[in-house]
Design goal:
Elements (H helix, E strand, L loop, with lengths): L5 H11 L23 E5 L2 E4 L4 E4 L14 H13 L8 H13 L5 E5 L2 H16 L3 E5 L12 E2 L6 E2 L1 E2 L6 H4 L2 E4 L4 H11 L3 E6 L15 H12 L2 E6 L10 H6 L5 E4 L10 E5 L1 H4 L18 H13 L5 H23 L7 E2 L2 E2 L11 H6 L2 H13 L2 E2 L8 E2 L6 H16 L1
Parallel strand pairs: 3-16, 5-9, 5-10, 10-11, 11-12
Antiparallel strand pairs: 1-2, 2-3, 4-13, 6-8, 7-9, 12-13, 14-15, 15-17
Helix pairs in contact: 2-10, 3-10, 6-7, 11-14, 13-14
């Protein structure tokens, strides 16, 4: 279809004089896929509406939180009621306790927790706590896993199985990054070798149990088990960054799906129901090292914000609806099978890994197991596919390194519209 983009283009031009790239988060600028971003006016269920009046089936889902769909009436009502009582207090509330109890019901490994405002805050605080609890400085992350934009985590791998981190952003001092060791995702042997050589210096391993920031990349059999075994053997902590996977790949996140019990967990996205809210927590003996009980400092005026807490609590209550997760899994399975069939029919080589409510269309024939595999995919071709899908009324993440998110509001009509657009896009 031919989309009118007049107003969105005018808004982008105006925004470019006020914000770097005209956006408040880089991927929104569409530089990875080409073209200009539509400016969104509103959303409902599985549908976005832009400022030009175009309508899209949404697979960004505000980057994960919209598991129940956009503007769920019960969540909206909870937010409105909370806002009427006051937007922020900077003081304890009873709702914080209710939300913490609900979270512990989903994630038994989180015995104690702190509410914060973003996934970056959660991971940054969890790593500070791990260092404080162990008295060690070094942390291990995996290439292609994104844990927010704090200085110590904006690093990439060099050559070899393990390197000292190098800053992946201007403005990050090398001294910050040198305590972050980066390994290839899904390489269990590299983990064993590193801990054999330097285990006594490592405070923690942090990992996306299902990678979502290089596209959807599933853990290889035994990989997460190795992380749990090796960290326990060497007195390091295992931190699962479930900001993306929490509540989305299973009711109890990836740790339930794969049977892994971490020391600390980071949650975001779904836990706030679309509002700025995140969580870090884990074993009580570790969490008691946080001030005011211990020497590890973390604070935030908006932590536990009553409006965000109300949205999160309403969302978590709705996630226990009978059949929600089985229906979501069936929807994603049908959608991905249809996308694969459309690509095969057009003679386009793709691989489409999926888990729970997330998937990625990689343009390449080989399975994607790590960041190097993801980099070898045809991202220029993904860009052309993205633009064709947008013209067909389907809003995909504007990068081949991102996951697509499906909500409980994606039904028969949304699948059929998506597959109709995909058949045209793949042929083009």
């Amino acid at each position: 279809m031919s989309r009118d983009t007049t107003r969105s283009r005018a808004l982008l031009k105006k925004a470019e004089g006020l914000m770097p790239g005209g956006v408040n988060s880089p991927v929104r600028a569409f530089r990875a896929v080409g073209g200009d971003p539509p400016f969104i006016a509103r959303a409902a269920g599985a549908t976005l509406f832009d400022e030009d009046g175009n309508e899209y089936v949404d697979y960004v889902g505000t980057w994960g939180p919209a598991l129940l769909g956009h503007a769920h009436p019960e969540v909206v009502a909870a937010v409105q009621a909370a806002a009427a009582r006051g937007l922020s207090f900077g003081a304890p509330t009873a709702a914080e306790i209710e939300l913490a109890l609900a979270i512990r019901g989903f994630f038994p490994s989180i015995e104690m927790m702190r509410l914060v405002s973003s996934g970056t805050e959660a991971t940054m605080s969890a790593l500070r706590l791990a260092r404080g609890a162990t008295g060690r400085d070094d942390v291990v992350k995996f290439e292609g896993c994104y844990h927010g934009h704090s200085d110590g985590l904006l690093v990439k791998a060099g050559s070899g199985l393990a390197t000292f981190g190098e800053p992946d952003s201007a403005g990050v001092p090398a001294d910050f990054a040198r305590h972050t060791i980066t390994l290839p995702y899904n390489d269990a042997q590299a983990v064993r070798d590193l801990f054999a050589a330097r285990g006594a210096q490592i405070a923690a391993v942090i990992v996306e149990p299902v990678a979502g920031n290089m596209g959807t990349v599933l853990p290889a059999p035994g990989f997460l088990e190795t992380l749990r075994e090796v960290t326990q053997a060497h007195g390091a902590l295992l931190i699962l960054d479930e900001v993306m996977t929490g509540f989305r790949v299973a009711r109890g996140g990836a740790q339930q799906l794969y049977g892994i019990t971490p020391d600390l967990t980071c949650l975001g996205k779904v836990v706030g129901g679309g509002m700025p809210l995140a969580v870090y927590g884990g074993r009580a003996e570790i969490m008691k090292r946080i001030a005011p009980l211990g020497p590890v400092y973390q604070a935030g005026t908006l932590s536990g914000n009553p409006v965000a807490t109300a949205a999160g609590l309403a969302t978590l209550r709705l996630l226990d609806a009978p059949g929600l997760y089985s229906t979501l899994d069936a929807t994603v399975a049908e959608l991905c099978a249809g996308l694969q069939a459309a690509a095969d029919e057009a003679g386009v080589k793709v691989t489409i890994p999926r888990v729970g409510g997330m998937f990625t269309v990689f343009f390449g024939e080989a399975p994607v197991r790590d960041f190097a595999d993801a980099q070898r995919c045809d991202h220029a071709r993904f860009g052309r596919f993205h633009r064709a899908m947008l013209d067909g009324g389907v809003y995909l993440p504007p990068s081949g390194y991102e996951a697509c998110f499906v909500s409980a509001k994606h039904g028969r009509d949304e699948i059929e519209r998506t597959l109709a657009a995909a058949r045209v896009a793949f042929r083009a």
